[in-house]
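Slide 14.
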Amino acid sequence: MVNINELSVVVFGSFIAMCMLSTLYGKGNPLYSFAEESYIGFGTALSAIVAYDNIQKVGVAGVQAGDYILVFGLLLGIITMTRMFPKYSYLSRLPLSISIGSGLGLGLRTSVFTGLINQVNVTLYDLFNGTSQVLMVRWVITISLLCMLTFFIYTIEIKGPLKYTAMIGEYCMYIAFGVIFAQTFMGRLSLFVGYVQDNMIPPWKMPYFFGAMVLVLIIVIILDKTGWRERLTPED
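Slide 15: predicted structure.
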């Protein structure tokens, strides 16, 4: 027996998903706008609920347990809300400056290791020991890195040998950007495939999924042919 809550999630979720995918029709339509704004609204509401729950579990419960340093955090959070009042909005700069400053400080400390030292260690690590396949990969990475670095030399004129290494580095970056784009596309595609599979198992979900697909397509076509699509679609 299918639970009514699970059935509602499947029906509404399939309809919203097909509304989002209606952008593949090639023209803006009110169903896509409805799904997009619903996603933003639900996301904002969920973020507010999660934030309130964290305040209760971490802030209020922590103060009640004797961790009074959290009072300053709660106070700074309240001061942030003064941004809604123009007369006192300047007070909100204090918690924002503390948050941004501490975040940059912690991020800079870790970036030195993760973005520089560790990267150099991995790139130049043991270029003479290992199997032929491993050594080939390491040498290709090292040579490509050095060539790409020469591409970004702006203090002197790029001529002579640097001209050719810069050109090789430029093509290496093209290859890297292409690989990154392909990985991003495959990641998004795998998410879509996983969502479709989730709507195929168990089999009772399939009629609702395909029904939502056909229903949204018919509605979009009717709105487009009758001229209501442009009237009902909100302007960007």
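Speaker note: The radius of gyration is 27 Å.
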